[in-house]
Amino acid sequence: MEFRADLHCHTTASDGSFTPQELIHHAIEVGLQALSITDHDTVDAYKQAIPLAKEVGLELMPGIELSSSHRGVPVHILGYNFILDHPVLQALLKKHGHRRTDRNTKILEKLASLGFPIKEEELCHGETTLQNIGRPHFALVLKEKGIVDSIQKAFKLYLGEGKPAYEPGELISIEETLNAIHEAQGLAVIAHPHLILKQSIFRQLLDMNFDGIECYYSRFDKAHNDKFLKIAKSKNWLVTGGSDFHGTIKPGVNLGCSWVSYELFNLLKKEHL
Ligand code: AMP
Ligand code: ZN
Ligand code: FE
Ligand code: FE
How many angstroms does the Cα of residue 236 sit away from the middle of ligand 4? Predict the structure, then answer.
C-alpha cells in the first residue's frame, strides 16, 4: 500500500470531535501509515496517542498548531518533530492556556451582551476547560441552541474576525512562537498559507525563520499546490501537508484527504535538529 502521512489534524484536546484514541483508530481505518496530531496550542493528546499508536503500528510525529499574530493578522504555525516536554515550549503552552481562558471569558461576555447567554458548563464537557476551548466550540453551542443553523453561520455572524463576538485575546508574536519551536528542536511550518490574504504580510512571512510551508491541504487545488511548492523550492523549505481534520466540527474534511509521501515525511524526520 502507498505510504501516506497526514500531518495536520485535531482531537478533543483542542477543537476536534474525535478523542486521541478515536483519531488513531480512524487513521488506521483510512489507511494512513503515519500521523501528526496538530492540536491548537496544546500537546495534551500525545499522552494517550503515543502508547496506542505504538500498539496499532501507526507512526506518530510530534506536532502542534500554534496561534500567533503578525501586525494584527492571525497566523497559524505548525510545529513538528520537537521535544514534547521541552520547558521553553511548555512555558509557551502555559501562556496559551491563560490566553484562551481570558479570551474565552471575554467571548462569553460579548455573546451574553448580544442576548445569547451561554454557561461555562454548556461549553466545557468532560475534562475540557476554558483553556482548551476554541471558537468552533462556541459555534457548536450557538447551533445547538438554534441561534444559527450552521457552524459556518456562527463564524459569519458572530465569531469571525471583526464580528461582534470576536475577541483575539493576548497577541503572541511569530518570533516568540518560532523561538519556542526551535528551542524544542522542532521545525516550524506556515500552516494553510492561502488564508493569509494580505500579500504584504505574506511576503514578510517569507523572510522569517520558517523551515517549511504547508503545500498540500484539504481545500487546495492544483494551482495552490504549485504556488506553494514553488515557494518551498525557492526558499529551500520543507514541504508538508495534511487534511486539517476536525471530525464533525468541520464537515466535509476527511482524515487523510491530504497527505505527504514517504520521502517528504522522512525529510521532516531527518531535518530534526
Ligand atoms: P480559535 O483557535 O479558537 O481562534 O479557533 C480557530 C479555529 O476555528 C480554526 O482552526 C478553524 O478550525 C475554525 N474556524 C475559523 N474560521 C472559521 C470559519 N469561518 N468557519 C468555520 N470554522 C472556522
Ligand atoms: Zn481548529
Ligand atoms: Fe489553522
Ligand atoms: Fe488546524
Answer: 24
